[in-house]
Structures are given as structure tokens and as C-alpha cells.
């Protein structure tokens, strides 16, 4: 049966056999998954822009791993477990950002990922989504994974465009807003969350999948995982290592920029309605004046 998007639907459950890809000479190698993560300001903290260049002031709030990317890491680890462990599937955590962004990679390693890659370069400062996707694409081309996983959006920008940009730049089919992911040999199949339920969408590897927050429950790093992460390798790459020109990223190379901003005005005092028998009428008049009714 064909779903609304023209994709093949299936009622079969996830396969238990190991998904592997053939290498030259008929040998087999583990499926390689790369999970893109982003370091963002804490969602509960007040965000500020730096008046010097109208970019995010990263020192004004605590930095955390983008919440939706944690779901992507968890999904990669669950796929690895279903396929038989690290011998059948490897998980690499990739991030682009300043020096402290490596903390996001470490969080993924503490959860159970095998290794990490951190792209860091002063020229990246101020990069917009287009510029960032170009750097991520260069890193993914270098890593050559079978499957790229990432959150559907970041909590600081809420744009939800990087997955599509990254799929286009790397020439991979994109399977977005996944509420369930199955890997069956060289085929990846998802349940794409929609307003009316879900569509079943599938593609051949290599592919890119973005996940939604209801797909799983990210695990907390155990003490053993935290200690083990200290010994896991994290490769640091510059723009030059990836063959990306510095002028193509950062503020100068971005297609969008903040031209001006103003601080949010202080919250005005509320209106107190004294009920003298006509409280209901006064409230109705207030709501009508504010165009709520």
C-alpha cells in the first residue's frame, strides 16, 4: 500500500538481523552513524545579543546540548544496540562551534557514542544556518557515514531548516520529523509525524534523518559512561582541514544577519478590577478593549 507521500508502508516490526554494507572485495564493515549536535543557551535562561556585532552573547547564559539532538543520540544508540553493538554499528557525535562546544560532544560520548568530531575555527563566529550547513556538509563528506541523525530543530533558533540544507548539500535523501526509525539492511524507514498521524517513508542508505522529541527517552549518562567518555577520541578539525574557505562562513559569509535589536521593555503593571457589583462587566470591557473578545 502507498502512503500519502507515495512511500511504501509496512506493518512489519524492526528487523533483528545486523544491517551491514559491503566494502570492496566482498568484506563487511560496520554501519556508520553520525549524529549532529549543537550547543545552545539554556532554554530557561534569558538570552542576550552582543551589541558589538549583534550575535548571540554566549557568555550570558549557561550552555547545554540542544535537547532535540539528545533524542537523536539516543536513537543512534538504540539502533546500534538493535544491530548487535559496536562491532556492527559505530556512532560518532559531530558538532560545529566554539571551544566550549566540545562539551556537547562529551555529553554524547557519556551517553554511549564511540567517538566525536569537533569543528572549531574563529572564522565560524556569526555563521547563519546556510553557512553552518556548509561546514557540517564538509565534515559529513569527510566522515562518509551511512546514516546521519539530528534533531528536527534547535531550541535557540527554532528554524528547522538545517536538516534539509544538509541533505541537499550532501546529496542524501532526507527523512524528516521521524517518530520512529528502522534500519533494515541498506534501507532506512521512518514514521514521519504529521498533523493527521504519520506517513511511512523509506530510502536507501546513505541517508539523513531528523527526529522529533517523542521518538524515545534519552538515557542519563551513568558514572561508568562518564568515566569511559574521558578515554574516547575526539577529533578537532578546522575549516582548512575541511577545505572550507573562511570567507564563505561567519558574519561575512552568511546570507542573513541581525541588523538591529532592542531590549524587551519592562513588563507593565497589571490592571486591578475592583468588584463593586459590576466586576464581570469591567472584566468583559477590559478584554474587549484588548481585543481578546
Can you put this structure into words, describing what you see?
This protein has 293 residues and is an alpha/beta fold. It has one domain (20-253): Rossmann fold, CATH 3.40.50.620. It has eight helices and 14 strands. A hairpin with a 2-residue loop joins strand 11 (187-194) and strand 12. Helix 2 packs across helix 5 and helix 3 (129-143) packs across helix 4 (162-170).
Comma- or semicolon-separated keywords:
14 strands, alpha/beta, Rossmann fold, 26% helix, 8 helices, 293 residues
Number of helices: 8
Output mean pLDDT: 87
Tell me the helix content.
25-40%
CATH class: Alpha Beta
In CATH, the homologous superfamily goes by the name: HUPs
Which segments are poorly predicted (pLDDT under 50) over 5 or more consecutive residues?
1-19, 21-25
Distance between the amino and carboxyl termini = 47 Å
**SSE-based structural type:** alpha/beta
Number of domains: 1
The tally of strands reads 14
Biggest pleated sheet:
10 strands, mixed
Based on the coordinates given, report the CATH architecture.
Answer: 3-Layer(aba) Sandwich
Helix and strand sequence: EEEEEEHEHEHEHEEEEHEHHH
CATH topology: Rossmann fold
Our Rg estimate from Cα atoms comes to 23 Å
Query: Roughly what fraction of the amino acids lie in strands?
Result: 25-35%
Shape: globular
Amino acid at each position: 500500500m502507498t502512503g500519502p507521500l507515495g512511500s511504501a508502508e509496512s506493518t512489519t516490526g524492526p528487523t533483528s538481523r545486523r544491517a551491514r554494507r559491503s566494502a570492496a572485495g566482498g568484506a563487511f564493515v560496520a554501519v556508520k552513524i553520525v549524529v549532529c549536535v549543537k550547543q545552545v543557551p539554556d532554554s530557561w535562561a534569558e538570552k542576550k545579543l552582543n551589541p558589538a556585532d549583534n550575535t548571540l552573547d554566549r557568555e550570558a547564559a549557561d550552555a547545554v546540548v540542544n535537547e532535540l539532538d539528545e533524542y537523536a543520540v539516543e536513537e543512534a544508540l538504540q539502533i546500534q544496540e538493535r544491530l548487535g553493538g559496536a562491532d556492527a554499528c559505530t556512532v560518532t557525535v559531530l558538532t560545529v562551534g566554539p571551544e566550549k562546544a566540545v562539551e556537547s560532544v562529551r555529553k554524547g560520548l557519556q551517553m554511549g557514542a564511540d567517538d566525536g568530531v569537533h569543528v572549531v575555527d574563529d572564522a565560524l563566529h556569526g555563521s547563519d544556518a546556510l553557512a553552518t550547513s556548509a561546514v557540517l556538509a564538509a565534515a559529513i563528506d569527510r566522515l562518509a557515514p551511512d546514516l546521519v541523525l539530528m534533531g528536527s530543530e534547535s531550541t535557540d533558533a527554532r528554524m528547522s531548516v538545517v536538516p534539509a540544507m544538509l541533505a541537499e548539500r550532501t546529496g542524501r535523501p532526507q527523512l524528516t520529523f521521524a517518530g520512529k526509525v528502522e534500519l533494515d539492511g541498506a534501507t532506512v524507514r521512518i514514521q514521519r509525524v504529521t498533523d493527521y498521524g504519520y506517513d511511512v517513508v523509506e530510502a536507501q542508505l546513505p541517508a539523513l534523518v531528523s527526529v522529533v522529541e517523542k521518538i524515545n527517552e534519552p538515557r542519563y549518562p551513568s558514572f561508568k559512561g562518564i568515566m569511559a567518555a574521558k578515554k574516547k577520541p575526539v577529533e578537532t578539525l578546522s575549516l582548512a582541514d575541511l577545505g572550507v574557505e573562511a570567507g564563505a562562513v561567519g558574519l561575512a559569509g552568511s546570507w542573513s544577519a541581525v541588523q538591529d535589536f532592542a531590549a524587551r521593555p519592562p513588563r507593565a503593571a497589571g490592571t486591578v478590577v475592583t468588584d463593586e457589583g459590576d466586576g464581570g462587566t469591567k472584566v468583559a470591557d477590559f478584554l474587549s478593549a484588548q481585543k481578546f473578545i
